[in-house]
Amino acid sequence: MNKRISFVPALALVMVVLSVPTLATAVTTIDVVDEARLVGRAAVMSVEITCDLGANSFLAGTTGIIIQRTRSNVIIGSGDLDQTPIDCDGTPQTFQIAVSSARFRPGPATAQASTIVCNRTPFTCESAQDSEEIQLVE
Fold first, then answer.
1. Which residue segment(s) compose the domain that 108 sits in?
2. What is the pTM of this model?
3. Is 96 part of any domain?
4. Count of other CB atoms within 10 angstroms of residue 81
5. What's the DSSP call for residue 51?
6. CA-to-CA separations, 28 to 9, 58, 96, in angstroms, rounded
7. Domain total of the chain
8. How far is it, in rounded angstroms, from Cα 33 to Cα 120?
9. What's the Cα-to-Cα distance from 81 to each of 30, 58, 62, 134, rounded to whole Å?
10. pLDDT tens by residue, 58-115
11. CATH number for the domain including 52?
12. Pairing mode, strands 74-81 and 54-69
């Protein structure tokens, strides 16, 4: 009988904990757009960033990398955005990153992007990353 008595309060506690709504946590995402345009010595890739940290937010660092395999080479280029304002209201916002390389050619490639988004008040930061197969086009 003592086992049932000690079990009932524990079960009641579990039910109370499970019935309390959990606080929503902020979520930042970055999505690489499927196509990048070749412009001069760069490929301009687009990324969509969604965050909900508030109006006082900024991109503390956003990096894009494109890797293209040819018959005889692997071509790698990178570019970044620093200290760019963003209104983190939960809607996707598009940013362009110029990824430098003298030898990109039209065709398939792999693009990777990562970002750190911060809010000044209260100071909070979140990070996100994505990797996609894309097409480089002229």
1. 25-137
2. 0.78
3. yes
4. 19
5. -
6. 39, 12, 18
7. 1
8. 28
9. 13, 11, 5, 20
10. 999 999 999 999 888 999 999 999 888 998 999 999 999 999 987 899 999 999 999 9
11. 2.60.40
12. antiparallel
